[in-house]
Amino acid sequence: MRIAVPKEIKNNENRVALTPAGAKEFVKEGHEVFVQQTAGEGSGFSDEAYQLSGAKILPTIESTYEAGDMILKVKEPIGPEYALIRENQLLFTYFHFASNEPLTRAMIRSKAVCLAYETVEKPDRSLPLLVPMSEVAGRMAAQKGANYLEKPLGGRGILLGGVPGTLPAKVLILGGGVVGTQAAWMAAGLGADVIIMDVSLPRMRYLSDVMPKNVKTMMSNEYNIRKLIGSTDLIIGAVLIPGAKAPHLITRDMLQEMLPGTVMVDVAVDQGGCIETCEPTTHENPTYTIDGVLHYCVANMPGAVPYTSTLALTNATLPYALALAKNGWQDACLHYPELRSGLNIIKGDVVYQAVAETFDLPYVPVSYYLNQH
Ligand SMILES: NC(=O)c1ccc[n+]([C@@H]2O[C@H](COP(=O)([O-])OP(=O)(O)OC[C@H]3O[C@@H](n4cnc5c(N)ncnc54)[C@H](O)[C@@H]3O)[C@@H](O)[C@H]2O)c1
Question: Long-range contacts for 159-168 (Cβ within 8 Å, ≥24 apart)?
Fold first, then answer.
């Protein structure tokens, strides 16, 4: 198979979907690898390193899309890329369709096969291609929150861990999954008082077993959220309902009840955000303030630490990408059932129910395509 890796063009996105080590694995199995010039530069991988692994370097994004039967990417295609995608091409990348109607419609028009990293789901419901980036974003969320709580950056001017004789900052984490857990470890490690809210009792039982003493758990509901927000310094949004838009747990009116300089980091922004006033921001302009409350809503947080993120992501994606190249997407989905749930759009049909429901589009079960095979 011909595998092509375009350079990411989303603002400040420095990750790349394949490392030279990964390229070598494809070449070893007899595939052809095409990498757009400087695609790996932002993550510290030179064109020469890819060439040494047997990949060919292509000069433009157009020639790269043209070369691939399978396009390996990190972020969803953006406007200028839509026209480069062609019928039957396999795209393996993050899409987050449920929060992006123009992208959904463009991919339907392209008649490509869209396999989304974020909905690849194992039988135990874990999301193996979301986990590594969630780990990065979760750890970063606490780091960013601590930073923006500083007065000159617009925060309350409170040190996350305090010092002897002062109380530490209070951190509320909405969602105790991968992001929430990693954020809690970091915030607790810095000495903050942390509360994790979730709706899953088994998850909260697990968290209260493994977390340090300064992390408590609490059922997530409007009553409890309203009770806490007036005395919280940092709120981290980390909710996920797979394939669907995040619920708005913090509504606009709640901002009035918060302390001026409260910081909110909505990591769930890529699924629409669990804070009503959350609008996607970029690393160039990461924050804005509404009613005295600072919002940080960068949709591609791991993009700021590309070295760590590229390695973490490709460690997880490479085995699947190799299987897709070896068997083709239909057979690969039969061998790896988790890849099946990654299929979102096939040749113009929406095959992921939550996406079809979100935009009121016709839904075609994925079995229609797999059983035909
Ligand atoms: N901004 C970024 O750069 C970035 C990077 C990685 C992940 N994310 C996003 O972060 C979010 C969280 O990802 P994750 O990997 O931690 O997901 P996860 O599935 O591991 O955890 C989600 C948690 O939310 C909980 N939850 C569901 N409904 C809830 C509610 N009403 N109140 C409280 N908790 C609720 C679930 O029980 C689960 O424990 C996702 O939207 C993901 O796309 C964003």
Answer: 160/187, 160/190, 160/191, 160/192, 160/234, 161/190, 161/191, 161/192, 162/191, 167/193, 168/192, 168/193, 168/214
